[in-house]
UniProtKB/TrEMBL annotation:
Pfam families: MPN_2A_DUB_like. GO terms for cellular component: nucleus. It comes from Dimorphilus gyrociliatus. One of its GO terms (biological process) is mitotic spindle assembly. This is DgyrCDS10247. GO terms for molecular function: microtubule binding; polyubiquitin modification-dependent protein binding.
């Protein structure tokens, strides 16, 4: 049975592109076949065919129906615009991503697999179909991503074992040197943003990563440490911004309380002044003052100003219209 081999960077890129939304893409690589001799108990040599399918790069399309329609037919014009002649020769399969779905292939995917293998002129037994299914728990606390690579044998699709190739393994050094990093268009806002931290940091290491002779483990580690440092700085800035927002909200809340207290005290003062006006008018028309003082209205105001308990209300009498008060009102009958 064949074995699928993929680089760790390519696998992480595949999973990252599939975590945003439903997508489809193309797998590039090569199929290597070799014969191995096996010695049995009877000292009889038997040859076994070893098939390894190496995935060297992927191409994630912008939409779900970029190179096919809903019936499973291949759009040759779209594929020609996406690929060139060299990339067409390196096609070894395709993949699809369905969020919160089942692992069963649909009729459209089965039909598209046959049409795509026919378009790429590849052997159907070694033409890969990748299925990625991101899912979340009921409380959305944990996200998981199940992925599987399959080939069609006769009338059924069989899952193939997967082997991840690390950059530091010496036995895979030749295979690693054949890997060429390629930046594909992603739907993630972190990648598509031209001013993102990832693009700024990766542009510094783009030259060293592009040159295959310098593509060593130290460049990958330097890129990882730089990205980690930038991530820590962004976290600290976000924390400081949250503290500033909390402080501003606290000040606004205190200011709102002060405004409410000021409006309440102003209303109390207005009520007190209204009560004072009513009392002063009652004093002006009081019969006791008429009997005690046979005075005119102007003289009565002077007398009221001399009273200690009324003296503080003198300013309010200035607003009273005295023309409506006749002198006869202050004389006892």
């Amino acid at each position: 049975m064949a074995i699928v081999e993929i680089n760790g960077t390519i696998l992480s890129q595949l999973l990252h592109d599939c975590t945003v939304n439903n997508a489809e893409g193309i797998l590039f690589g090569e199929v290597v076949k070799s014969l191995q001799d096996e010695i049995t108990d009877d000292d009889i040599n038997e040859r076994k065919e070893d098939i390894r399918i190496h995935i060297t790069k992927i191409l994630t399309c912008e939409s779900y129906y970029s190179f096919s329609d809903r019936t499973g037919q291949v759009k040759k014009n779209k594929l020609q615009s996406l690929l060139d002649n060299k990339e067409k020769k390196d096609i070894i399969g395709w993949f699809t991503c369905r969020h919160n779905s089942t692992s069963r292939m649909s009729f459209r995917e089965q039909a598209l697999h046959l049409k795509f293998a026919e378009y790429a002129r590849k052997d159907l037994d070694n033409f890969l179909f990748g299925l990625v299914i991101p899912s979340a728990t009921d409380d959305s606390d944990v996200n998981s991503c199940n992925f599987d690579f399959r080939v069609k044998k006769k009338d059924y699709f069989h899952s193939l074992p997967l082997r991840i190739i690390n950059l530091g393994q010496r036995n895979n050094q030749k295979k690693v040197e054949q890997y060429i990093p390629r930046y594909v268009k992603s739907t993630s806002p972190l990648i598509t943003n031209s001013n993102s931290v990832f693009n700024e940091v990766s542009s510094e290491y783009h030259t060293s990563l592009k040159d295959l002779s310098k593509m060593q483990e130290e460049h990958i580690m330097n890129l990882n440490s730089t990205l980690h440092k930038e991530f820590v700085d962004l976290c600290n800035n976000a924390a400081n911004q949250q503290l500033l927002v909390a402080q501003l909200e606290k000040e606004l809340k205190a200011l709102g309380i002060c405004v409410e207290n000021g409006i309440g005290s102003q209303e109390d003062d207005e009520k007190t002044h209204d009560n004072d006006r009513i009392e002063l008018k009652e004093l002006q028309h009081s019969p006791r003052l008429h009997r005690r003082h046979n005075l005119s209205s102007e003289e009565l105001l002077i007398q009221l100003n001399d009273e200690p308990q009324i003296k503080k209300k003198t300013s309010l009498l200035e607003n009273v219209d005295l023309s409506d008060i006749e002198d006869n009102d202050f004389v006892c009958s």
